[in-house]
Amino acid sequence: MKTLTQTLNTVGKATEVYESPDGSKVLILPYGGRILGLFTPQTTRNFFWTHSALAAADSARAFYAGNEWHNSGGDRTWLAPEADVFFPNFPKLDKYFQPRQLDPGNYRFELTVEGPQLVNELRLTLTRSKREVDLRMTKAIRPALNPLRYEKLSINVEYAGYTLLTSLELLGASVNCPDRVGLWNLLQLPHGGDMWIPTYSKAAPNIIMGSVQPDDLSVDEQIIRYRMRSPGEDKIGIRAVATAGRVGYLYAAGEQSALVIRNFYVNPSGEYVDVPWNNIADFGYSTQACNVKSHQGPFSELEYHSPAIGSGTGRSRCTDESQIWAFRGPSQQIQLIARTLLSPAI
Q1: What are phi and psi of 322, to 5 degrees?
Q2: How far apart are CA 91 and CA 69, in angstroms?
Q3: Would the pTM count as exceeding 0.90?
Q4: Residues 7, 54 contacting (CB under 8 angstroms)
Q5: Which of 46, 155, 195, 212 has the most CB atoms less than 10 A away?
Q6: 57-88 pLDDT tens trace
Q7: Rounded to whole angstroms, how far apart are CA atoms 330 and 328?
Q8: Is 166 helix (H, G, I), strand (E, B) or coil?
Q9: How far is CA 344 from its chain centroid?
Q10: Which H/E stretch holds residue 299?
């Protein structure tokens, strides 16, 4: 964490550190609105993926001076529908562009009585309607104590966690805008692990992007396993009606194993407005996972959406709450934690 912080500060990307009552440390990068790192009290090893350019000041300086999207890594917040926000020529898919007012945005760091938060106000032009919307995004960091602290399990592992409160608000005349916009949180993790997605019933993952190899995706009655090892860029989506609101990613961490779980609220009655690019009438996806091993870097993304605000939803503002629980330790003990918090099928 010290090296990463020094590098970023050296190249003019100031960082902040939040320490929760249990000693968990969260590295905050206001540039891009990132939660860039999560660390246990025992070690300074990051649970999250960060761009390799951030390993040294010279490469980081060149990275941030470039015109390409500055994907620093970690936990970021985007907006949906993807078709309206990131494809300026939709339905043509010839150009994918991250609006700079969204990412990196113009986040300001605020320290409140409850804890730190990041605030970004922006104006977006939605591709299909050509209408502008004015928005405020707020990301607040709070503690998340070990969910197993009262369980009688024979384990001795490292733990770190945090709660993320993400708010989205339509501003001014946009309160009456006849469009819908939703929060989209994406967590980047080291490549090569397994994503475990518990479901209430047997789900049918939709291939949103790329071509997932049959051996990499297994679907059982109440669990989906996605082996994230392939080159290229591939992505799956699972509907809100089936997803249980908890997704885990298990990966090797040297001689140990690491497990990162995101716990979030799923409301099948809400309007999940992100759609597959080739079927814009196919609504209802709450949970996504993206395998990336390309020029963007090698990472695995754990993604989820919140119900939209705007036209027909009865809401001009929303606040979403999620927890990150991260464990590192001997493989057998991490497997036990995965079975306890996700599914006995793991």
Answers
A1: -140, 160
A2: 22
A3: yes
A4: yes
A5: 195
A6: 999 999 999 999 999 999 999 999 999 999 99
A7: 7
A8: strand
A9: 25
A10: strand 297-305
